[in-house]
Amino acid sequence: MSLNDILITDTGRQQRRRVGRGLGSGIGKTGGRGSKGEGSRTGGKNRGPLFEGGQFPFWMRLPKRGFSNHEHKVTYQTIDLARALKRVKGKELTLETLETAGLINAGTRVKIVGGRAEGAVKVERAVSIVVNRVSGPVKAAIEAAGGTIKELDLEAAPKDAQA
Length: 163
Hints:
By secondary structure, this protein is an alpha/beta fold. The protein has helices at residues 58-61, 81-87, 95-100, 136-144, 152-156, and strands at residues 77-80, 92-94, 110-113, 128-131, 133-134, 148-151.
């Protein structure tokens, strides 16, 4: 038996149809799209599952329901404390120092986070932190090292909204 005697009957995958490769192929020229019209063009008749042929769609006939708080959602850019202390050499971690160190973008709210387990956050020097939010383990580690924390969002919010 030699290599030319091997007959491969099933490759396990059907080959893709190469359309538009000459008239002799049987699927050349228009490539099975017909001639002219929207369907012959790229992106034509690409309408999605909810399109009902121009009829006013069912989902638009239904009333709006519920409430979305998406536009009022407050998002924070989280920064690891160890990474921040490595990049910022001074005694202050503020929004400005984090921005100059390249850790955050301008105008973003920042939350300093650390390890989840107790004792996972290690702070060797006393640091003053002035950011929007600080996680619990980080707060405990900074205060144990003799540092101070000022959370901007908690000061701006009214007292009854700090739940």
